[in-house]
Write a structure and sequence with these properties.
Elements (H helix, E strand, L loop, with lengths): L1 H15 L14 H4 L3 H12 L5 H10 L3 E3 L8 H4 L8 H24 L11 H27 L29 H22 L10 H15 L2 H12 L10 H12 L9 E5 L25 E3 L1 H14 L3 H5 L16 H4 L15 H4 L5 E5 H14 L3 H15 L12 H15 L6 H12 L7 H4 L23 H6 L10
Antiparallel strand pairs: 1-3, 2-4
Helix pairs in contact: 1-6, 3-6, 3-7, 6-7, 7-8, 7-9, 8-9, 9-10, 9-16, 10-16, 16-17, 16-18, 17-18, 18-19
């Protein structure tokens, strides 16, 4: 294990310190010495998985969009991002670029090392172990490219528009990539997923919520098909996943407990809703720190509360249908001010404490109370993808049925079947339900990027939330370039001045 981490650490340094790339330290291990056996490949995967954490995507969606508002203990934390100051020097743009290309780099290191290793046919199961390791690395490489494309790609439904650089090898020092098109990156992602699926199928790999297998591959295929508007693939891929997963048919008392347990990472039937999640330990990121300083209740020095406009929707749904998400996503120590719009100090008094990530009780101490596993793919997303495919085909009945499936899983009383007569109506309802169900999971930025213009919707912050800080605008329309794509970070331009910047940055 030690030699693998030495290699991967040196690889990370290689991407960050170009002025020292020719230095070879005594005892430094190259890929040919770090990866010698099939067991080394399997061990090395841990160094790839650890770079797949999606906290920057979650922070972008939470702070930049309309999901959150400054909390009672916010003395300026992340206010530049919250007030739409998004530029090539923004930390979120730089870190999302760096972490995803680091993920891709580590996957490529493992894949290149695998080319030099021959499984021993005399060792039972070694070929399957080898193929499974390669398949996981291919899927992780595709995942890294998908995250980059979805946030930096200029127009995901235009194959000729600017995408991101495809990196399918271990680059030499001072390598200066150019941007591939959206279509080229999409095709590359799908090719990696096809190759991974063939290997998983041949090995008979079983599904594990913490390890990539065919259900991860099919989920990512469905997501990317939705992002690019490939309707037939959206339907086939989402249905192939749903063959193994179902949502509760009604939010009974038992399923409410299961849904809460799912976010607490404790055993229960709610775990059946998770297709894949990243295992967060005490050494990993604390998701709750995006909203809370110490703990996810009123004593935890909240940095960001749930946005008031979003809370009001949950509250109305809870009154009408018994929406179980409200008491699970909002901590009971919150103080709800009915006349918040006229309250003299809503930031201090109207406290909507985010509790979607309440901490894992299996992780000891205060730090454990801030950490939960990151849910990358959940069953509910596949239903949203099927609804989206139906809307694109003007099949409003199927779209309504898919939305009702999700609502019935979260409502204590049966949800009425929605009625759509236009695509705009259907897009609006789909965006609403995605906003409610996928809150604080990193989807909102890409959702408005993709679907906002179809529904004529942008960010929807409550005016009271906007009064908490000095900003030129309260909301951003979906036509604003900042809602459509991130800037290529300045750090990339410093070493690669020829790369093309996204429009208007």
């Amino acid at each position: 294990m030690k030699k693998i981490f030495l290699l991967l650490f040196s690889a990370a340094i290689l991407t960050a310190c170009e002025d020292a790339t020719d230095i070879v330290q005594p005892g430094e291990l190259g890929p040919d010495r770090a990866f010698i056996t099939v067991e080394d490949l399997e061990t090395g995967l841990s160094g790839v998985y650890v770079t797949a954490i999606t906290d920057w995507e979650i922070e972008l969606a939470a702070i930049f969009t309309d999901e959150s508002a400054p909390g009672s203990s916010n003395g300026g934390s992340n206010l530049a991002l919250h007030t739409y100051q998004l530029n090539p020097n923004a930390a979120v743009a730089s870190e999302m670029w760096r972490t995803n290309y680091n993920l891709i780099l580590r996957a490529n290191i493992l894949l290149e090392a695998a080319e030099r290793i021959l499984p021993d046919p005399a060792v039972a199961g070694e070929q399957d172990t080898y193929d499974n390791a390669v398949a996981q690395a291919l899927a992780l490489r595709a995942y890294g490219h998908s995250r980059l494309l979805s946030h930096y790609g200029v127009d995901l439904e235009d194959p000729a528009s600017l995408g991101v650089p495809i990196i399918d090898f271990v680059p030499i020092p001072l390598f200066k990539p150019s941007r591939n098109t959206v279509g080229e990156v999409y095709d590359f992602i799908q090719a990696d997923l096809v190759a991974a699926e063939l290997l998983f199928t041949s090995t008979g790999a079983t599904q594990d919520v913490f390890f990539i297998s065919n259900n991860f591959v099919r989920s990512l295929r469905a997501r990317m098909a939705a992002y690019t508007g490939d309707v037939p693939l959206m339907i086939s891929a989402a249905n192939s996943v749903l063959a193994s997963y179902t949502l509760p048919t009604q939010a009974t008392a038992a399923s409410t407990a299961d849904y809460r347990a799912m976010w607490r990472d404790t055993p229960g039937a709610g775990m059946q809703e998770i297709i894949f999640k990243l295992d967060v330990t005490l050494n990993n990121v604390a998701l709750s720190n995006i909203w809370n300083t110490n703990r996810s209740d009123a004593t935890g020095a909240p940095l960001y509360d749930m946005g008031r406009s979003l809370f009001d929707i949950y509250q109305a749904n809870n009154v009408a249908f018994g929406d179980i998400r409200l008491p699970i996503f909002i901590d009971p120590t919150s103080t709800i001010v009915a006349n918040y719009a006229t309250d003299p100090n809503p930031q201090e008094n109207d406290r909507l404490i985010v509790d979607k990530y309440p901490g894992d009780p299996n992780l000891a101490g205060l730090a454990g109370g801030l950490r939960n596993d990151i849910k990358v793919f959940r069953t509910v997303e596949m239903h949203f993808i099927l609804a989206e495919a139906a809307i694109r085909s003007s099949d409003f009945t199927t779209a309504a049925q898919q939305i009702r499936i999700v609502r019935n899983a979260r409502y204590s009383t049966p949800a009425p079947l929605p009625s759509y007569t236009t695509q705009t109506q259907a897009w609006t309802d789909l965006l609403l339900e995605r906003r409610l169900e996928l809150f604080a999971e990193g989807h909102r930025y890409v959702d408005i990027k993709r679907l906002g213009r179809k529904a004529n919707l942008g960010y929807d912050r409550d005016e009271t939330d906007c009064s908490l800080y000095a900003a030129a605008v309260c909301d951003l329309p979906s036509t604003d370039f900042r809602t459509q794509y991130l800037p290529i970070p300045q750090n990339e331009f410093n070493g690669n001045p020829g790369i093309q910047q996204s429009p208007q940055y």
